[in-house]
Write a structure and sequence with these properties.
Elements lengths: L17 E9 L2 E9 L5 E5 L2 E2 L9 H9 L6 H4 L3 H10 L3 H4 L3 E5 L5 H8 L3 E6 L3 H9 L5 E5 L12 E7 L8 H8 L3 E12 L5 H11 L4 H7 L3 H7 L5 H8 L8 H12 L9 H10 L2 E6 L10 E8 L1
Parallel strand pairs: 5-6, 5-8, 6-7, 8-9
Antiparallel strand pairs: 1-2, 2-3, 3-4, 9-11, 10-11
Helix pairs in contact: 1-6
């Protein structure tokens, strides 16, 4: 944890100031310590360079497993490609000049694939996640001067209001118990004039059979589902067979990335999460209106493996 992070944090229980106590340092960063609220005396630990505002990963344990198992798969810097950079541009509409010099919040940082992009584009990024994916994110990018990683709850955030120039949440809010309330919870953190971009799943025919499978897969032990998800690796070739392959993909949808580990990861990512809500673009547009946003833009998107998407961005007024 960098010292400057203290300027952004406050007590999520009472909004009190946090004092750092019993700190130990490594390479100029706070490795271990205690953040003690000056008003309600609630203590929050800093362990392994990460401030912790939760004691458990509750409903996101599959993501804790997923991102520490597949920590490197989607990282451009570790795979010598620009897949995540192109995805970030596509799903937010931002270019490097929109990010440079800005303080940006990544709501649901995962292993840090998009925080890496923001960091390389010259922004300063704070990545927050309820899951222990924060370990993978810190491992990948946490040592950078312009990157901060926090473990916290989106419904009880430890960050001060109107702190960030921009915010984004790519494929995360629909994995909470209540997507609309999750959206509402983060809006106060954005400065007036700042932009908030979201990517959410939409209703589509892709879900017809996968949602039926999810009634089973979400009840399986995580490690068992991890191994079962590897079926996506050989199915990639079966799905290329005319007619039969298309039918197989419809009845048992799996990811079709050329990279075998990416196929495995995305298939697990689809079938493992406890919550996976779908929304329409008019519904999400209304959220932006209700929260006081203007210049709301819905991006025209191509189909991604027949999966319907909602990508939207607005400016806070």
């Amino acid at each position: 944890m960098k010292k400057k992070m203290l300027e952004m944090l406050f007590c999520p229980s009472c909004s009190g100031t946090l004092n750092l106590e019993h700190a130990t340092y490594e390479d100029g960063e706070i490795k271990e310590g205690l953040l003690l609220c000056t008003m309600c005396n609630v203590p929050y630990k800093v362990t392994d360079f990460i401030p912790r505002f939760v004691d458990t990963d509750t409903y996101v344990d599959s993501f804790s497993f997923e991102w520490n198992k597949f920590y490197d798969v989607q990282m451009d810097i570790l795979n010598n490609n620009d897949e995540s950079e192109r995805t970030f541009l596509w799903k937010t509409g931002w270019k490097p000049e929109d990010i440079k010099g800005k303080l940006v919040l990544d709501v649901g940082v995962g292993a840090g694939r998009f925080a890496d992009v923001v960091s390389r584009w010259g922004g300063e990024v704070v990545g927050i996640d309820l899951s222990y994916a924060v370990h993978a994110a810190y491992k990948n990018i946490g040592k950078r001067d312009n990157v901060h990683i926090i473990q916290g709850d989106i419904f009880n955030l430890p960050l001060k209001p109107e702190t960030f120039d921009h915010m984004y949440s790519i494929g995360v809010l629909h994995h909470t118990p209540d997507t609309r309330n999750a959206f509402h919870s983060v809006v106060p953190l954005l400065k007036k004039g700042g932009e908030f971009a979201v990517f959410l799943y939409a209703h589509g025919h892709y879900h017809a059979f996968s949602d039926r499978w999810r009634k089973i897969t979400t009840k399986l032990p995580i490690k068992l589902l991890y191994y079962l998800s590897s079926i996506a690796v050989p199915l990639y070739y079966i799905h290329k067979i005319p007619f039969f392959g298309r039918a197989a993909q419809f009845f048992l949808p799996t990811a079709n990335w050329p990279d075998r580990r990416w196929r495995w990861l995305d298939t697990f990512d689809w079938y493992a999460p406890k919550y996976q809500w779908k929304h329409t673009w008019p519904e999400v547009f209304q959220w932006y209106k209700e929260e006081g946003f203007t210049d709301i833009e819905l991006f025209e998107l191509e189909k991604e493996s027949s999966l319907a998407l909602v990508c939207m961005r607005g400016r806070k007024i």
